[in-house]
Every structure is written in structure tokens, then in C-alpha cells.
Design a protein that fits this description.
The chain is mainly α. It contains 18 helices and no strands.
Length: 466
């Protein structure tokens, strides 16, 4: 099936020119692609494995601490999407300036991006600090006193960390736009090492529980922001921030960043809200379904590491190609990375399908929950292999070209109509948690068809930002 999907993307109504097949003077060489993508793979792997170890450490502080951290993290993801979307918008603008040969424009966009994301994060921090309990009550209703206490403590410190995370995210996005993903990988590694070390000290040794985990997160993000802030100001960078403490708003430039960032942020926020609604559906199915859904969700995240990394790389690659006015090169590299995605995701999914039983067995679930988790993991492996690229990764190529409004509308409608709508329908038919996952696969299929058709139409080539 993956082969046919790939063929459908590559095939065009007109003949493919020789220059599209292999540019004579490529913007990115094979070595440059490897140097860009490999650190992104490592960074995505760190995001999963370090996050998992973080959760395990907090688990030692008791169920109330774990629950408090869990409920806040769901809210954090939703809020953080807002300023990380701005970082993506800035990366697209900077990449297009680099491609056009306008280094000063890229540097100017970097400075505006840093300040815009920091200001948005400061506003979100202030909002959360003023209304901690109210936000938790709106999202989750009445939590038990011990869970609420842990959640408030953890929420307070992670909210204070928002501006520092925003600075790191903007800096990482800018280094990726330059094609230098090693910096974001190393800073991410340092951030996670500091976080784990402080968690051991605060949670294990000092017994601070959820509060200790929140403080560790805050300190780690402060360090990451400081290092990233110093690195992005270095004179030798292709993009650098000059006179960082002197800021004059450039509203046309901010408008270009928001043109990408706002639709991307709305799309990500709607996606997270939809996931919360689906999560509520699962919680009504009982403890066994909740456990199976959680474990299968954690395990299957592994399969998305290659697609996520290549999606980030496409922002840099397509952005620079479009900025240079070479849309044929953008098509060429998208097809090339599409093949890499299918090969890597297909291999990981095949391993997950075969070894689903032993992997799920590590979590020591009840027989009923383990059986369901294995079924979910295997159905995911079958669906993800052909649909991972067109449903999600391909959208980054469209966004990098500036085609953000279309991707926002299509993704949001597909999420709410097919994923959420079919979840209710299939649950009504008695499919239990498998019905929720099948609704997700239907959503992926619809997205794939829409974005493949959009890519083949070439309309995205007219959406250049600068």
C-alpha cells in the first residue's frame, strides 16, 4: 500500500523533467541531508525516552503526584503549541530568506521571532499563574484534594518556565532553518540531562514529588534558554541576532511570521483539544481500556520518530528551495524524503507488529488490557506505515511553502468530522477502544487523500511568504 501511495504522490499529469528528478546544482547534497536529519532523529528519540524516564521517576512519589503531573502535562502541551507554532512560522520565514540569499532579512526575522514568542509565552505564563485552579477545574472538573494540590504545584513551576521554553524553541527552529540541527540536538540533550539529574535530586533524594519535578523542569529550561540565547548571537552564524537587548518592532516582518504561525497554532490547538475529547471517551470505557490505550499510545510513539524528524527537516529544505524560487527542487527533495520516510517507518512498524506481545508485556498489564494493547499496536503498525508521510509529514512541506491556511482548514475539519465523529459512531457500535483508534485511522486516510491531491495540484507553489 505504501508503494501505491508513493506512486500517487510522485505521478504528475505532465511529464517529470530531468531537472526535477535530479537537480544539476542541488541546494542540499546527500551529506547535508544526512547531517540535517540524523540529529533530528536523535532529538525526537530523546523527547520520547527522556519523557518516559521522567514519568517513571515521578511515579515513585505516589499516584497523586503522577496524576497531578499527568493532568497538567495535557494542558501544558495545548498551551505550548501556541508559541511553538510561532517558532515554526519564524523558521519558515527565515528559511525562505536564506534561500533567496537575503541574509539580513533572515537575521531581522530571527530577532522579531525571539521577541514575539517570548512575549506570547509571558502572557500565557501570567494567565496561568493567575488562574491555576480555575483552569484545572474547567478542564477536569472536581479533582481530589491531593491530586489538585500536586497539580497546582507542578503547574506553577512549569508555567514560569514558558518564556524560557519559548526562547529555546525559537532558537532551535532558527538553527534548523540554517540547516544546523546539531545545535538543537545538543542543547536538547543537555536540557534533558539537567532535568533528569535534578529530578533525581528533588524527587528521589529530597522527596518533593510533583513540586520537585516542576522545579527541575524550570531550571532545565532556564539553562537551555541561556545556552540557546548565547549561541544564536554568535557572529559566525548564517542567522544571528544582533544587539539582542535593543528591540524595535517590525510589524510587516511580524505579520509574515504570524501568517504562518497563527494558522499553525490554531491547527495544533484544535488537534490537542480534539485529543482531549477523545481521551474523555476512552476514560468512560473503564480501567482496562484506559490502561491499554495509554500503553499502546506510548509504545506506538516510537514509530513516528522518523516521520517527525523528516517533517522538521522539510521545513528547512522546502523553505530554502521556495525562497530560492526553485519549486522543482522542493518537489524533488519532498519525493526523496518521502521514500526515506516510507522505508524507515515501514521497518519500525514491521518490528512493532512482530514484537508487540513482548513489548506490551514489559508493562505487566492485566490479561484483558494487554490483549487490547497488543491489538491496538498491531492495527497502528498496519495503518501508520502507508499513511504517516501523506497525513502529517507532507503537511510540513506545504507549510514551508506558505500554504498554511489550507492545511489548517483541512486538518481541523478532518480531525473533528472524522476522528471525533467516527469515534462516537464506532463506540456506539460496540467497538470499544478499538473503535476510537479506527476513527483515528479514518482521519489519517482522509488527510492523506487531501494533502496528496494538494501537493500534486501545485497550488502551494504560489504561496511564497517573502
Amino acid at each position: 500500500m505504501a508503494r501505491y501511495a508513493a506512486y500517487f504522490i510522485v505521478r504528475k499529469s505532465d511529464a517529470v523533467t530531468q531537472s526535477e528528478k535530479e537537480p544539476e546544482d542541488p541546494i542540499f547534497t546527500r551529506k547535508q541531508l544526512v547531517l540535517l536529519i540524523f540529529p533530528l532523529l536523535v532529538e525526537q528519540l530523546l523527547a520520547i525516552t527522556i519523557g518516559l524516564s521522567d514519568t517513571i521517576m515521578v511515579a515513585g512519589a505516589g499516584e497523586a503526584a503522577v496524576s497531578g503531573v499527568s493532568v497538567v502535562d495535557a494542558i501544558n502541551v495545548l498551551l505550548i503549541q501556541i508559541f511553538t507554532a510561532m517558532a515554526t512560522g519564524g523558521a519558515v520565514v527565515a528559511a525562505q530568506y536564506i534561500g533567496s540569499g537575503n541574509r539580513q532579512g533572515a537575521c531581522d526575522s530571527a530577532k522579531q521571532l525571539m521577541y514575539v514568542t517570548a512575549i506570547i509565552a509571558l502572557l500565557l505564563m501570567a494567565l496561568c499563574l493567575c488562574f491555576l485552579r480555575q483552569i484545572l477545574h474547567i478542564v477536569y472538573g472536581d479533582l481530589s484534594a491531593d491530586v489538585m494540590g500536586n497539580a497546582v504545584e507542578y503547574f506553577r513551576y512549569t508555567a514560569i518556565s514558558y518564556p524560557f521554553l519559548a526562547i529555546y524553541s525559537a532558537g532551535a527552529a532558527l538553527f534548523r532553518a540554517m540547516g544546523n540541527s546539531r545545535i538543537s540536538m545538543f542543547v536538547s540533550l543537555m536540557d534533558n540531562v539537567v532535568n533528569i539529574g535534578l529530578n533525581v535530586l528533588f524527587v528521589y533524594n529530597w522527596g518533593w514529588g510533583a513540586k520537585g519535578s516542576g522545579i527541575a523542569t524550570l531550571y532545565a529550561r532556564v539553562v537551555a534558554a541561556a545556552v540557546m540565547g548565547v549561541l544564536i548571537c554568535r557572529a559566525g552564524n548564517l542567522i544571528r541576532i544582533e544587539r539582542p537587548l535593543h528591540y524595535v518592532p517590525d510589524f510587516p516582518m511580524i505579520g509574515r511570521i504570524l501568517h504562518i504561525g497563527v494558522p499553525n497554532g490554531l491547527e495544533s490547538s484544535m488537534f490537542q483539544i480534539g485529543k482531549l475529547i477523545v481521551q474523555r471517551q476512552v476514560t468512560a470505557l473503564g480501567t482496562s481500556a484506559i490502561a491499554a490505550n495509554a500503553v499502546a499510545g506510548t509504545v506506538t510513539n516510537i514509530a513516528n520518530i522518523p516521520a517527525n524528524a523528516i517533517g522538521l527537516a522539510l521545513i528547512t529544505i522546502v523553505g530554502q528551495c521556495v525562497g530560492a524560487g526553485d519549486c522543482d527542487a522542493a518537489v524533488h527533495f519532498t519525493k526523496r524524503l518521502m521514500a526515506v520516510t516510507y522505508a524507515t517507518v515501514g521497518a519500525v512498524c514491521a518490528l512493532l507488529f512482530v514484537f508487540a506481545g513482548p513489548i506490551i508485556g514489559i508493562y505487566r498489564l492485566s490479561p484483558a488490557a494487554a490483549s487490547t494493547a497488543i491489538l491496538l499496536t498491531r492495527t497502528f503498525s498496519v495503518a501508520d506505515a502507508p499513511l504517516a508521510f501523506p497525513a502529517f509529514t507532507l503537511t510540513n512541506a506545504l507549510r514551508a511553502a506558505g500554504d498554511v491556511r489550507f492545511t489548517m482548514i483541512a486538518s481541523t475539519l478532518s480531525m473533528w468530522v472524522f476522528r471525533i465523529g467516527f469515534s462516537f459512531i464506532l463506540l456506539g457500535l460496540g467497538m470499544q477502544v478499538l473503535g476510537v483508534w479506527c476513527a483515528m485511522y479514518i482521519d489519517w486516510l482522509v488527510r492523506s487523500v487531501i494533502f496528496i491531491l494538494r501537493f500534486r495540484s501545485g497550488k502551494w507553489k504560489t504561496k511564497k511568504v517573502i
